[in-house]
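Researcher: First entry.
Model:
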Amino acid sequence: MSKLDGISPGFVKAALAAPYLSREYEQQLARKWSSAKDEAALHVLTQAHMRLVISMASKFRNYGLPIADLVQEGHIGLLEAAARFEPSRQVRFSTYAMWWIRASIQDYILRNWSIVRGGTSSGQKSLFFNLRRLRSKIARNAPDGDQTQTFQEVALALGVSLHDVEVMNARLSGSDVSLNAPVGSEDDGSVTERGEFLVDTAPLPDQIVETQLDGEYRSRKLHAALKKLNPRELRIVQARRLSEDAATLDSLGRELGISKERVRQIEGRALEKLQTIMLTRHEGAISAAS
């Protein structure tokens, strides 16, 4: 099978037939696009570098994704390079565009290689695209070495942690499994799927409703009990117990014109009063229910 299977032959032919650009003409086209947004200049510039996109995409064909999609993503990277290219730096466009093409293709592979998203940091990308190659190389040089030693050498070579290497190796060694995949069959002919073994730790619907009703009931009781406090008790309880930023005894004492010890005493008395009211109401509700 050709490494370009999946790409239109006409597209490949057009890309290979595009003329190479001289440095001067390339700079001229880049300036036209950069300063005047000349789309004709952009078309000539990018068409001349589509062979670079195809070549780069073919290097990533072993990741199980359609080569046509890789070429498309590489083309997006090429357009991004054209948008960011600065002709004044006197650098060949192909040298600059190569990085953007590779980055775009790699990002696409990371997003689509597995339904489980992997890390997108530079270290994780380096691990994903280099782990298998380095692992094989090190294993050939030291065939009797243990796996931990190999992973340590990979971590050192790529500048990442040993844990990251172990996690990425586990991901690359496994494959995605559908939750609808059958794992057995019953006597009645029904099929047991893998997803049926997953445990949902979320509360059941009746538990959610019960918790919500209990919360509303307690909230109503608290608001009713707070109405039994006098204004000074209510102010202290609200500032000390019902506010995210609790006020200090000293600040409340200055506000109310009393000592902080007196504030503490009023707070304690108010809390006891609330507790008594809440318990009395609770016991009355139980008695009424029974």
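Researcher: Second entry.
Model:
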Amino acid sequence: MGGSQSSPGTARIAHALPTGIWALGFVSMLMDISSELIHSLLPVFMTTVLGVSMATVGLVEGVAEGTAAITKVFSGAISDYLGKRKLLAVLGYGLGAITKPIFPLADGIGWVFTGRFVDRVGKGIRGAPRDALVADIAPPALRGAAFGLRQSLDSVGAFIGPLLAVGLMVWLANDLRLVMWVSVVPAVLAVILLIAAVHEPARPSARPGARVPLTLADARRLPPSFWFVVALGSVFTLARFSEAFLVLRAQEVGLALGYVPMVLIVMNVVYAAAAYPAGIAADRFSHRALLAMGLGVLVAADGVLAAAGSPLAALAGASLWGLHMGLTQGLFAKLVADSAPAELRGTAFGIFNVAGGCAILLASAIAGVLWSRFGAPATFLAGAGFAAVAMLGLMVRKMPGAVRG
């Protein structure tokens, strides 16, 4: 009976969301098709074609993701200052599109590092303004659903990309470079859609002639509830290093080269299926319970991946990883939006993401070193340990509520 009621309710909520939310979701989907087509093959490309070590993979992935998050703090603050979030989003997505040809042309790790670095700068520039734009466009009562929908469509792209990679690898006889060239098309389409279909709303919090200054005082204006969300999100991220290690784990336990992208397909199918319902749940139910559920699933994912001895087990671990992401990522975005004043929302998303970026840089570096010295199980068991620390944080601190505005 509950299922028969939830589906129409979910559909009504989807219809109630503004067109701009859907457009931003499809922009994310197209760019993720492009990015994940590349990323599902890049770890294998680095280790087989370019011959780099696991520690180097960890360093490249960690620096790339850390760069994205550090850039977000500046782009978020600038979007608050200018009151022009869409402009920065277009710049960020445009940079992402421009970098896509670098990967198939790369003949050394320096080119891959450069491509990942610039691509992640683009992601950093667009991330906080885009999330703040979602919060600006969405009605407050549907904010969780809006973030969940955008994240769900983003995740649809994140499994279409690797699925396309698998099909192209079979069709093109495992020609990694040729397959990566296809990524250029959806990246360009994402930029065109963003320019044409997303319209920035007027910002009622802004007064004519008044601009929020870019100073450290901005950070001090953010409430303690926001800083708790930042701390909790950072510990979550320490437990969730780069997905490159999921791909490499599956290859290590016997998944054939042409089917390695199946890891990200499985992960993102589950992620996409969970994100929107979890976003709706975040508008209605206990945030603590949802985060605890997500942490429990992450511990299970790490345990399965640590013990995996076959491709099927690695895929099972990846599906649990995707479920954890679906349960938590949209919820964290809602918590940031709810705990920050409207005029500092871009800055808040930037700070949250820079903290997460530093955490993922550290987590990926640790993961690479642990893998190189002690093997894959040590990497995933360490992730489970960080998840347990986050669980303790949930138990000792009350979850924040929304601020007005």
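Model: Note on the second entry: Residues 1-8, 205-214 have pLDDT under 50 and may be disordered.
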